[in-house]
Amino acid sequence: LLLILAFAAIGREAHARGDIIGGAFTTAWPFLAGAAIGWIALRAWRSPLVLWPSGVGIWIGAVIVGMLLRAATGQTVVLAFVIVALISLG
Fold it and tell me: For a tag site, which of 4, 29, 31, 82 has the least CB within 10 Å?
């Protein structure tokens, strides 16, 4: 949760988007939802500290669902951002 919020805040600051606190939530919510979906789908509470499959599944869920939600809500989804998100969230 905190790292996804930090990713969003750093990205907003790097692109001089202003309103870092509120804007970070606007940027982060799709990825937070994706991570939550991955957490639930994998029942990660059973083994929350393992890298495989919980960690990888939550990471991929955050990116894939996050990008789908961004696209569905009219936010920007370009290849460069997908790559940055994949690396940063990983």
Answer: 82
- The C-alpha atoms of residue 18 and residue 16 are separated, in whole angstroms, by 6
Tally Cβ neighbours within 10 Å of residue 29: 18
Interatomic CA distance for residues 82 and 78, integer angstroms = 6
Pinpoint the alpha helices (H) of the chain: 2-14, 20-41, 56-72, 79-89
- Backbone CA torsion sign across 79, 80, 83, 86: negative
pLDDT tens-digit series, residues 43-52: 988 888 888 9
74, 76, 78, 84: CA torsion to nearest 10: -130
What pTM was estimated for this model as a whole?
Answer: 0.86
- Alpha carbons 10 and 15: distance in angstroms, whole number: 9
What does the pLDDT read at residue 71? 95
